[in-house]
Amino acid sequence: MKTNIFHTTLVLLALSLGFTACETDNYDEPEAAITGQVYDHNGLPFQTAVGQGSMSIKIVEKSYSVSDSSVVVIPQYLNMTQEGGFTNTKLFAGTYEVCPWQGAFYEQDGDGDAADVVLLKSGKTTTVNFSVTPYLTLEWVKEPYMDSEGYLNASFKFYRNQKEGYDMPTLNDCSLYISHTQYCGTEADSNYTPNPTKLTADMEGQEISMKSKIPIRYAMHYWVRFGARCSDTYQKYNFTTIEEIEVTSAQLAQ
Amino acid sequence: MKFYKSIIFASVGLGISLASCQDLDIEPKNMISGTDVYNEAGITAYMAGLYKYLPMEDFRVSPSTGSEGFNGWGCMPWDMWYTGESVGSGDTGWTFDNIVKGYWSEAYKEIRYANDLINDLESYKGTLAGAEEWQAEARFVRAYTYFALVKRYGGVPILTESQLMTDNEEDLYVARSSHQECIDFILEDLDYAIANMTTTKIQGRANRYVAAAFKSRAALYAGSVARYGGTYDYVDENGVQVMGIPSTLANDYFQQAYEASLLVDEGGYSLYRGDSQKDVNFRNVFMNADNSSESIFIRQYNINNNVHSFDCVYSPPRMASTYGDRYNVTLDWVELFDGLPLDEQGRIKTTDDDGNYIVYDGEQALWENAEPRLLGSIMIPGRTYKGVTLDIRSGLIKEGISPDTKIAKFVADDAQTTLAYKNASTWFASNVLTTTDEVRKQNPLTLSSGEQIYINGLDGPSLEGSLRSTYTGFHGLKWINLNWSVAETQLHRSVNSWIDIRYAEVLLNRAEAAIELAQNGVTSVNGHNLLDDAMTCINDVRDRAGADLLTSTAELSSETHLNERMTGKGSMVFAPTKGLHVVRVERYKELAFEHKIYWDLRRWFTFHDQIKSYRRRGLYPFLFIDEHTVNEAGNPTGKWIYDSRVVGIPNGAGSFPTSRYYDKIPDSQRKINPLLTQNNQY
């Protein structure tokens, strides 16, 4: 009887020892949040493609590498909204370098992409805004409308922006994007989206009209925007805002 | 007595134990020492190891199963799926990252082994026969490996000696050299190899002409980067230009490429012309890789030690025991060839001037006058391969509809429209029969006569559903071993050789370098008039291919070329001038499916313009049930119409991101070598 109790105690002791090795991970879960908005040089929201299609926000966690340059930190990239906003609520607390990354705008402050250094704390949301100078500013001239033959039409004009100390990149092309969702960007319905138009310097400030490749087929809502780009390293687009148009069955080609 | 015995035993025991302590200073038997290696047999074995891990883009390039992209068995996804050459069911999207596998540590392993040999052999010169030649061969191996790195990453760390174990980790960190320094280092190794290697040809092994041919490739790459890569130049945090080569050096590298390609001629290589029928001849360049005068540098395989699975993975499914169908050649590529009816936009002309389909009599009529090289590169419906007669048909036009009927084109062919046939054309919806059955498990259609007929061709193309038949309407032929039966076509059984460098590539390297020089202020090199020589080289390739010849050097002009898809024949290929467009199209046609075009597009820096919102196109044949017959193989044929359009299933648009002109330095390597800077755009 005694030995049984003795054995049981031993087993329990061994078990408890075994379990203590499985201590729970006590590192704080990623609860820090960052949010922000990219503005153009006029203070308007910088129009871009949803996700990382036309730019992203690069963040580098510097907490461990500040004192030791041999620590190599791999950057993370944040997705964008189509109006140039970004949010991530699942980051580890720490010190981060944050900068707008590889979009259709001039580099900042002449020294690569100038990064803001921010301290993110658990449970808190830190806001970081940026201002960039886009290569091109696009403005609507005629917002999307349906013509009598059932095509979707629109027009825009563009202006080239300069930034002191930088060469203006040469112009490349522009496109009209027609989408079935509000996430209108470089990915749109290829059956409607016409082929790109080449841009030349003398077109600056002129009205540029484009229309859908084929007549619109279904009565529903469409989201439309223009994009234009330069021949720089990244070949990313500047955009107009997104305009929504409801096509009624009366407007479709018969 | 017992006592004596004990003493004897004890002394014997002592003696043994003491004796065993004497000669501990012997060579360990499980390690290979210098004396094992530095003799004829040892060094041959050592060199065989170097060749095995040479980063050759061959049949065993395999991002899915290999080690850092090489030496796998799956042979997919392949780079030609992203260049407009073809597509395969391993990746029907445009995930360029799928083929980037961070080739790095395997490279430095190979470089270390080569360095050991190069350095050790220095002390064997004069005592070991052939030490100089072995050393030169090891330098070729080192250059070949470095080039694999440099064309991926730009500048990389240059190591010329093996690093030794040390307590101080920091001693092992090496920073990247500039892109230009790396190229010059490679060319210096190759020059040494050219000067000191043997002229003897042994298949699968390099000699001085292989080194020269490889130099023409490497120097041509360097010249192109210098001339066209300026937009992507990048100086890293250490102040080193790790991406890009100064444009002032372009002509210098092109001249080196040109001169190296002239040197190859001294080796007596020539284009293979062993068969009188030109399409068969072109096919046999690859079938006869081991014996052909055109093969300069090949890799051989062996059923016991080193096999690949290309035939099984890439044959049409009916011609393989399993797998199959990764070799769907695009219509865009087919349209580059001579002898096809094309419209003004360079598209295959399958409709008349009113936009109604032209009716072709018989499944081979469209291909009657096609350039033989095309017929040697893809499979043609109605022809028999491996005992199987190719059966390609997208659907049937219903009974009672006469082939004389005027039928308007079903869907726009503008390389963007992706509408399904049934949505695009009401005529199609009510008069054309298609099936969603898997092509090889179809339920046949019973006609009013009682005859049974398959709606879809047994080799595709399938319009609906992903059912293991060609997406584009074409199956590739280049490299496929036609001597094999279907039953023999199994995984891990292929041993046909890969040709890494063949004379046709050297001729085209030479022509391209010549045109680059001629259009940039150099008219002759070593007494050769460059434009004349370029024309001779291109015409040599074209004549063997059965293509139309250039008639004058005026066709190689420096006039600007319009770079826009669908603006004429060859317009899928971009180039700054008309002359360069000619040679670039020639490379597309001659060197397709050989892991060459992907790297060409990268060094021309036209990738992002050419593959921009790019959708692949295919060709879809439909057969009239009326007036049809059945050919000897049992396949229906008769009156055909052909529709060209964006492919039915992998119809997504692809855009090459400019960041992929240089690969990303693997993060894992940057963590162990803090001096290693990352490339721009990552």
What would you say this structure looks like, in words?
The complex is a heterodimer of chains A (254) and B (682). Chain A has two domains: 32-131, Carboxypeptidase-like, regulatory domain (Immunoglobulin-like); 136-251, Immunoglobulin-like. Chain A is elongated. The relative contact order of chain A is 0.17. Chain A is mainly beta and 254 residues long. Chain A is built from one helix and 16 strands. In chain A, strand 14 and strand 15 form a beta hairpin. Helices cover 7% and strands 37% of the residues of chain A. Chain A starts with a helix and ends in an 8-residue tail after the last strand. Chain B has 682 residues and is α+β, with helices and mostly antiparallel strands. Among the domains of chain B are: 35-258 and 662-672, Serine Threonine Protein Phosphatase 5, Tetratricopeptide repeat, CATH 1.25.40; 320-488 and 617-650, no CATH class. Chain B is 33% helix and 9% strand. In chain B, the strands form eight sheets. Chain B has a five-stranded mixed sheet with strand order 6-19-16-9-10. A two-stranded antiparallel sheet of chain B has the order 1-5. In chain B, strands 2-3 form a two-stranded antiparallel ribbon. In chain B, strand 11 (445-446) and strand 12 (452-453) form a beta hairpin. In chain B, helix 5 runs parallel beside helix 7 (208-228) and helix 6 (179-196) packs antiparallel against helix 7 (208-228). Chain A binds chain B through residues 69-72, 74, 102, 186-187, 190-191, 193, 195-196, 213-214, 231-235, and chain B through 170, 231-232, 412, 414, 416-419, 608, 613, 615, 653, 655, 658-659, 667, 670-671, 674, 676, 680-681.
Residues in β-strands, percent of chain B: 5-15%
Give average pLDDT of chain A, whole number.
88
Low-confidence stretches of chain B: none
Terminal Cα span of chain A:
97 Å
Biggest sheet layout of chain A: 5 strands, antiparallel
Which radius of gyration of chain B do the C-alpha atoms yield?
Answer: 29 Å
Number of strands of chain B: 19
CATH architecture of the largest domain in chain A: Sandwich
Strand order of the largest sheet of chain B: 6-19-16-9-10
CATH topology of the largest domain in chain A: Immunoglobulin-like
Q: Which CATH architecture of the domain at 35-258 and 662-672 in chain B? A: Alpha Horseshoe
Rg calculated over all Cα atoms of chain A: 27 Å
Alpha-beta content class of chain B = alpha+beta
User: Which structural class best describes the helix and strand composition of chain A?
Assistant: mainly beta
Q: Tell me, what is the CATH class of the domain at 35-258 and 662-672 in chain B?
A: Mainly Alpha
Portion in helices of chain B: 25-40%
> What global shape of chain A is seen?
elongated
DSSP helical segment count of chain B: 20
Helical amount among residues of chain A, as a percent range? under 10%
Question: What sort of overall outline of chain B do the alpha carbons produce when their principal axes are compared?
Answer: globular
Helix and strand pattern of chain A? HEEEEEEEEEEEEEEEE
